[in-house]
Amino acid sequence: MQPVSEKLKKELLASIRSVIDYPKPGIVFRDITTLINNPILMNALIDSLKNYYLEMKIDFVVGIESRGFIFGAALAYALSVGFVPVRKKGKLPFTVVSEKYSLEYGFDEVEIHIDAFRDVKSPRVILIDDLIATGGTAQAALRLIESLGANCVEACFLLNLESLGGAKKLREIVKVTNVLDIEVKDGD
Ligand code: AMP
Asked: Known catalytic residue: 67?
């Protein structure tokens, strides 16, 4: 089952701005600010995701910094469940669990609060971000979720840059739902 109708998919895709050569030459940055400032589209997206996830008995929505916070917090509110942030290293104030992941050059690190899921036993969670490219960030976030004893029922991305292979790899370990799939020939 698709969370979003074909009509809404077309409208969402048209609303996302592509910024060429940002943040560096060769990258096409998918700018979702032109979607989230449109209340009709944003409401339709969150309502569709809410209807899709309502039956799954989710306890928490986990959002990846920073654009995953926007969609994740809105969805958590719509589902009346808690929201948990996964943040870049050094941003969370309390005791954290950390996971490193590889970048093209070097590595990055994401963190989650050790008590993020409060005292809920084996919580059912959804992981959400605006975009999946190589999938490194999402894989690290998934390891954080599992290290706290939670069950990631599904990972959800607004945009999947299919040719970078991240969603395909992530599918080997968790169910993945992409609202929009984009084929990228070069760049990104
Ligand atoms: P990755 O770990 O390679 O899957 O990268 C995913 C993260 O980087 C997400 O948090 C995205 O917001 C961001 N990102 C990667 N590529 C792009 C892009 N072309 N446009 C916008 N955000 C991107």
From this structure: yes
